[in-house]
Amino acid sequence: MEHYNMNLTLKVWRQENSDKKGKFETYKVNGISSEMSFLEMFDVLNEQLIHEGKDAIAFDHDCREGICGACSMYINGKPHGPWELNTTCQLHMRAFKDGDTIVVEPWRAKAFPVIKDLVTDRSSFDRIIQSGGYISVNTGNAVDANSLPIKKDHADAAFAAAACIGCGACVAACKNSSAMLFVSAKVSHLALLPQGEPEKESRVLNMIAQMDKEGFGGCTNTGACEATCPKGISLSNIARLNKEYTLASLISE
Amino acid sequence: MLDSKIPAGKLEEKWTDYKGHCKLVNPANKRKLEVIIIGTGLAGASAAAALGEMGYKVKTFCFQDSPRRAHSIAAQGGINAAKNYQNDGDSVFRLFYDTIKGGDYRAREANVHRLAEVSAAIIDQCVAQGVPFAREYGGLLSNRSFGGTQVQRTFYAAGQTGQQLLIGAYQALERQVALGTVTQYSRHEMLEVVTIDGVARGIIARDLVTGKLERHFGHAVLLCSGGYGNVFYLSTNAMGSNVTAAWKAHKKGAHFANPCYTQIHPTCIPVSGDYQSKLTLMSESLRNDGRIWVPKKQNDTRKAADIPEDERDYYLERRYPAFGNLVPRDVASRAAKERCDAGYGVGTSKQAVYLDFADAIIRYGKIECGKLGIDPTPQIVREHGLAVVKEKYGNLFDMYDKITGENPYETPMRIYPAVHYTMGGVWVDYELMTAVPGMYALGEANFSDHGANRLGASALMQGLADGYFVIPYTIGNYLADEIYKKAESTDHPAFAAAEKEVADRLNTLMNIKGKQTVESLHKRLGKIMWEKCGMGRTAEGLKEAIEEIRALKKEFWSDVKIPGTINEYNPELDKAGRVADFIELGELMCIDALNRNESCGGHFREESQTEDGEALRDDANYMYVAAWKYKGEHDWELCKEELKYEVIKPSQRNYK
Amino acid sequence: MTWKQVFTSSVGQKLTMGLSGIFLILFLIVHAGLNACIWAMDGGVMFNRAAHFMGDNVVPRVLEIGLFVFILLHIIQGLMLEASNRSKRGTPYAVSYGNRGSKWYSRSMGLLGTIILLFLVVHMVHFWIPSRFTGVAETTLPNGVEVHDLFSLMMATFQENIGVVILYVIGCISLAYHLAHGFQSAFRTMGVHNKRYVAMLKAIGYGFSVIVPLAFAMMPISMYFGWVK
After folding, report:
1. How far apart are CA A240 and CA A220, in angstroms?
2. How many whole angstroms separate alpha carbon B318 and alpha carbon B295?
3. DSSP state string for C60-105
4. pLDDT tens digit string along C155-174?
5. Do A167 and A188 lie in a common domain?
6. What angle do CA B360, B363, B369 make, to 5 degrees?
7. Is some CB atom of chain A closer than 8 A to the CB atom of B536?
8. Mean pLDDT of B51-64
9. Domain tally, chain A
10. Residues A151 and A88 in one domain
11. Which numeric CATH code is attached to B268-417?
């Protein structure tokens, strides 16, 4: 891989806090290596801003290896930037070329209010999980792990759904700001396992009720969420959720 | 001498006896007892869930925006448990023995045995929670082997075991939040412990969004705040991972034990430039199938593919025929450093070795062809082999590709050791209580189970063991006496004093208004630590490091530049507080490393090695835990806890 | 859980859209099949007979009520969902994800549906209202039965004005794209997640969304150009 350096123009959303109105600011960064990660490029910019006596740009990030789900930049119109199956922290600068202008926005959804600059409040996801995204088993109650065989393809499908990192890119990408992919990933993960069976109905009904309450939109199956999901969570999970929901709503009392 | 309160009796009966005799708290009283938990990784989330289920009033604190983002999530490889599902001779004793030996005989026997005992229940619990571990076609759980062991006892979920376990614990925690037993404080950082009459009684936390300081009372405080690898600036830890909670506890009376025991993980993606902000681990599980090599010729500039087989040095297989590529992490890391220092490194930086899957691809390809009854032409063998490797390690290979821009299916990966885990931590007794009554430390934050080196897939095991199965018993033994004490009001002078201390420190930091950024000072600390307290340590280097760190501390407190204000979301200020603590910790690490004039596990003193460059322990002089008591600036008192081996006879580790 | 909770939840509302959509898809088959009788080249006898059967028989008349209920439900629910979904974003993005993540017509169901609705109003004014209320010239079938001469009405409507033909073609194109998304989406909403079935339904959906609107579009076109006798 050839390494190269580039000069870039960045248009970044700046917003002091949730009460203030935000706007775009334009910054220039020079000598960015193609081997840097996108967030390292932001580190460089922030160092530059601090030296100029300005406030650093706030952005969420933590593990920087694509698994914690904290990073959340909407880059040139796509959550997590141009690469497929990727998080912002794993995006590297060789995705760009010298002279490029990059527009960076926060996740935008009423259910994810901006805290500062590119940082949003995603605690609505926690509350959705609280409404039923678990199996009710107290510590110490469990039977031997191998006492209940699980079909490999079910286990694999459950794992594929459980790979969700809760970053919220699906909400950011969806024209309706719907959290259906996130909710369906959890519903599918637990519905596919026999351990999740007893609470199947109440789980899906409560989680959807909470999702609606948090102010996320409805799903219209456009598929934008699947296309942007860094972990490749499949749209078929949403169909599975629909099935679970319909059955549950028919039989619940 | 410190009292570790290890129960009397035979090793394998200690925990059972303890559980049978510890004090209990009745359910009605549990509702009145408040427990504060700092950190929501595997240890914190599992403890919060378990204690919430029991009926205690729990408050959890994490600096991330959700408990689910704690860095346990990044653990890739797996979790050990003595299930012996593979019928390959595993047992509680063998897991115990491997862990003690892997830790180079610097861990406490009783703690490690308890860990091995509860390991099997962890897997049961996680499966019941819906953790999607890898399975065989028959529907039963799959296992793989990991470094430092000769049995297959590692349970895994592709390369995302930590994520799946943490999500399991997180879901259990969120369930308790919904039930009202746990209150969760995200984007909050603990900045001080409040002690009243020498007993932990609460914390001062800062709401990172508004910058406001909050007082929280607790009958007990649990530190589950993880390790301190970020003292090296570059590590596999998350950017936010920090020592602050543990360090505040240390300064309020908790001993800090074996700070110099840091684990350098052998398989990480090498540094590519000065801008590097963190290092990425490639799971140790890759060593199951990958072979590590360097060219036999020094400064060989040929491409990997152009180097013929007989000019490659598979140095781990050469030096350690019995364990080969599966030697423990400390051994593998040092061997890589040795080769690179000797001029055999690869890549542009020459600070890397190859991890090669070519053989594994062919081996798996042949097996698949055999299964399917296909004529094994090289092309078809390769295709099938690639498919198998992709299924096993696909996500790791993709990650490597994204970071380096190189395709690991075509060319061998370049890897180099990087700081990964810290075995040292807050000193705790058998009950996981620190030297401050009422304050506990769980998971990576404590020092107790891994000695001088941790085996792969044991960190997840320890975090969950402490949280799910140890603390629920040991905390009861303490809280049973607390029911006679009423909850302190947070108006108590001790809370006011602690809050003022925190506020003053924040003001001081903001008012320095110097010229250097927090990041640049942290980088400098990291450089000192990596060069002088990293993979190879000398008395001379450590003495220099101590002086340099002291000077850096002065510089920090006189010249740091923090933008913004206190009463707003200000990540630079948060970072400044953490780096200030890392600087103090760095000094103590060097002091500890200087004190320990032997090589053991992750701590390698160049003065103490065998003729062929293996670590040389000095059991006569250093068979103890070095627990440091904070006395004042640059001043610590060494308190020793003698390590008594009643069952295992320490020997020089041999993986040959 | 009450029925109200079911049908006011985001998934329940989608279910309403999907179910009514599938009913409307079935209606389209009947409607297209019936209208295809214009190509019998018998001066409209077969078509008028079929239309008479639909208008005179009690079963289609009852179904017609259902059809109106479903159309109204589909329209009202659709517009409500569109308004509600649009309100969830807050500050709009400066750069849109656009066609990189989804098809334009999947994101434009509200717009396409509105065009179809406008078309439907014109269409009803042209045929349904005269047939039900204001009256259509009568004709006698070979078997002696008096029926509305809808065939002549169609010929008159489409042969006189190219504008009407264009309007109908636009309506059919909108319907085609509406179906291209709506057909498979309806089944996903009903919970079909099995990969084989999804693939099959997608293929059928695309076929349906081309064939049926094309058949409809050809009616005014072939009358305008005098291909129908």
Report:
1. 15
2. 13
3. HHHHHHHHHHHHHHHHHHHHHHHHHHHTT--SPPSS--GGGTS-HH
4. 999 998 899 999 999 999 99
5. yes
6. 135
7. no
8. 98
9. 2
10. no
11. 3.90.700.10
Chain B hits for A85, CB-CB cut-off 8 Å, are 398
pLDDT of residue B103: 94
A132 and A246 together in one domain: yes
Contacts of A32 (CB under 8 A, 6+ apart): A5, A6, A7, A8, A41, A44, A93
Does A147 lie in the same domain as A97? Answer: no
How big is the A-B interface in CB pairs under 8 Å? Answer: 223
Indicate if B329 belongs to the active site: yes
Give the SS3 label for residue B654. Answer: coil
Query: pLDDT digits over A55-80, tens only?
Result: 999 999 999 999 999 999 999 999 99
**Residue boundaries of the structural domains of chain B:** 268-417, 493-623
Residues A139 and A96 in one domain: no
Chain A residues with CB under 8 Å of C103 CB are 222-223
pLDDT digits (tens, 9 = 90+) for B156-212: 998 899 999 999 999 999 999 999 999 999 999 999 999 999 999 999 999 999 999
- Write down the architecture of domain B493-623 according to CATH: Up-down Bundle (1.20)
- Record the tokens describing residue C3, joined without a space: 């029925």
Nearest CA in chain C to A204: C11
Bridge partners of B183? B59
Per-residue pLDDT at B487: 85
Residue B645 identity (one-letter amino acid)? Y
Buried b (16+ CB within 10 A) or exposed e, A10-34: bbbbbbbbeeeebeeeebebeebbb
Residue from C80, C97, C99 to probe the interface with A (highest A Cβ count within 10 Å): C97
Are A61 and A21 contained in the same domain? yes
Supply the ipTM of this predicted assembly: 0.98
| A138 secondary structure, DSSP code | -
- Among A82, A101, A116, which residue terminates a domain? A116
CATH number, domain of A129, equals 1.10.1060.10
Note down the domain range covering A210: 123-251
Judge: A135–B130 Cβ closer than 8 Å, yes or no: yes
Q: Is the pLDDT confidence value at B147 over 80?
A: no
Cα-based angle B203, A140, B11 (whole degrees, multiple of 5):
85
Q: What is the CATH number of the domain that holds A104?
A: 3.10.20.30
Mention every residue, 6+ apart, whose C-beta is less than 8 A from residue B495: B194, B202, B204, B215, B217, B488
How remote is the C-alpha of B355 from its chain's centroid?
Answer: 24
Domain final residue, candidates A116, A146, A170: A116
Band (B633; pLDDT cuts 50, 70, 90): very high
List pLDDT tens digits, range C102-134: 999 999 999 999 999 999 999 999 999 998 888
| C49 in A contact zone (CB under 8 Å) | no
CB atoms within 10 A of CB B551: 11
Task: Specify whether A155 is located in the same domain as A196.
Answer: yes
Task: Convert the pLDDT of each residue in B89-105 to its tens digit.
Answer: 999 999 999 999 999 99
pLDDT at B560 over 90: yes
**Domains, chain C, ordered by start:** 12-79+106-224 (1.20.1300.10)
Which CB contacts under 8 angstroms, 24+ apart, belong to B401-405?
Answer: B402/A66, B402/A83, B402/A86, B402/A90, B402/A92, B403/A37, B403/A90, B403/A92, B403/B269, B403/B280, B404/A1, B404/B269, B404/B272, B405/A1, B405/A35, B405/A92, B405/A94
DSSP annotation of B488 reads P
Chain A stretch 131-170, residues whose beta carbon is closer than 8 A to a beta carbon of chain C:
none
Contact of B175 with chain A, judged by CB distance below 8 Å, is answered with yes
Please give the pLDDT value at position A46: 98
Task: Grade residue B336 by pLDDT with cuts at 50, 70 and 90.
Answer: very high
The confidence score (pLDDT) of residue C225 equals 93
Name the B residues in 327-346 with CB < 8 Å from any A CB. none
| Whether residues A109 and A130 fall in one domain | no
